[in-house]
From TrEMBL:
Belongs to the DXR family. Keywords: Isomerase, Isoprene biosynthesis, Manganese, Metal-binding, NADP, Oxidoreductase. Residues 200-313 form the DXP reductoisomerase C-terminal domain. It catalyses: 2-C-methyl-D-erythritol 4-phosphate + NADP(+) = 1-deoxy-D-xylulose 5-phosphate + NADPH + H(+). It is an enzyme of class 1 (oxidoreductase). GO terms for molecular function: 1-deoxy-D-xylulose-5-phosphate reductoisomerase activity; isomerase activity; manganese ion binding; NADPH binding. This is 1-deoxy-D-xylulose-5-phosphate reductoisomerase. The lineage of its organism: Bacteria, Bacillati, Actinomycetota, Rubrobacteria, Rubrobacterales. It holds the Pfam family DXPR_C. Its cofactor is Mn(2+); Mg(2+).
Length: 324
């Protein structure tokens, strides 16, 4: 609604809900589609509630699949409802895969902006605080995801999400740093051809596609030009931005590891934003917690996932205290 139309809402039967479980209750209400844009692990319950209520889900909460993984995918498949990715990279890949069979696909491509620190060494990043990390070169995002972009944990979480969404092995997920942020993702096919999705960084595009799928509408986004376009692609600096390989390894190990990875990262990022640890300490905390994971059982229900999440947060707080 335009701001001048706000009075049109006054007479609607609007119910206000808050407190524990409010987002899940809202997601379970009958709807054509539920857009889940909650940040972090907190979004998992809403995704599960929406799917159990036979609602289609436009998913911007990547942690639903990082933590919920195969269990959430099986839940979506059992309902027959759409689970449409809204992350710009996964939306791009989803669109590139339209009408294609699994047998045709060799690899999928996740692009990364590289964040504000790409190209720097560990020595140059020593002592870096949150003020510098929050200056993203391309996207305007909240503080948590902006820090995840700077550490490249965001790309690691997206690799886990892509593995579950598209059924592609981790060996067939390629990450490339694309500083222009115009190519958002792509697919490499078995015949060697590549289809890329390109657009100016504008979240109206994946959001509208996720809500209106399979239709498209004009949302006012500016199309890219080709007269002087220059697109570059580089390998990520896995030795400096260790969160990316840590995330991929956690995804490959499966079980509780992705849940623990995500929880430890959320604790570490909060400590970083509160000036409790420095930038490089985020990966240190995550790595230390991952090295201590016990047998937490199968992650095939909400209780098991919640238990793993709680364990990881306690251990991550200990790790933060040790390196302060």
């Amino acid at each position: 609604l335009e701001s001048g139309d706000i009075n049109a809402l006054l007479d609607l039967p609007i119910e206000k809900i808050d407190g524990t479980g409010a987002s899940a209750k809202l997601a379970a209400a009958p709807a054509d589609v539920v857009l889940n844009g909650i940040v972090g692990y907190a979004g998992l319950a809403a995704t599960v509630a929406a799917l159990k209520s036979d609602n289609a889900v436009a998913l911007a909460n990547k942690e639903s699949l990082v933590a919920g993984g195969g269990w959430v995918m099986r839940l979506a498949q059992s309902t027959g409802k759409d689970l449409i990715p809204v992350d710009s990279e996964h939306s791009a890949i989803f669109q590139c895969l339209a009408g294609r069979s699994e047998e045709e696909v060799d690899e999928i491509l996740l692009t990364a902006s590289g964040g504000p620190f790409f190209g720097r060494t560990k020595a140059e990043l020593a002592g870096t605080g949150p003020e510098a990390a929050l200056k993203h070169p391309t996207w305007r995002m909240g503080p948590k995801i902006t820090v995840d972009s700077a550490t490249m944990m965001n790309k690691g979480l997206e690799a886990i999400e892509a593995h579950h969404l598209f059924g592609v092995s981790y060996d067939n997920i390629r990450v490339a740093v694309h500083r222009q942020s115009l190519v958002h993702g792509g697919v490499i096919f078995v015949d060697g051809s590549v289809i890329l999705h390109a657009a100016f960084p504008d979240m109206r595009l994946p959001i509208s596609y996720g809500i209106l799928y399979p239709d498209r509408v004009n949302v006012g986004a500016k199309p890219i030009g080709f007269g002087d376009a220059q697109w570059t692609f580089e390998e990520p600096q896995s030795d400096v931005f260790r969160c990316l390989p840590l995330a991929v390894e956690a995804g490959e190990r499966g079980g509780a590891y992705p849940v623990v990875l995500n929880a430890a990262n959320e604790v570490a990022v909060r400590a970083f934003l509160d000036h409790g640890i420095e930038f490089l300490g985020i990966a240190d905390v995550v790595e230390e917690v991952l090295e201590a994971v016990p047998d937490l059982g199968a992650m095939d229900n909400m209780e098991a996932i919640a238990n793993a999440d709680r364990w990881a947060r306690v251990e991550a707080e200990k790790a933060v205290t040790q390196i302060r």
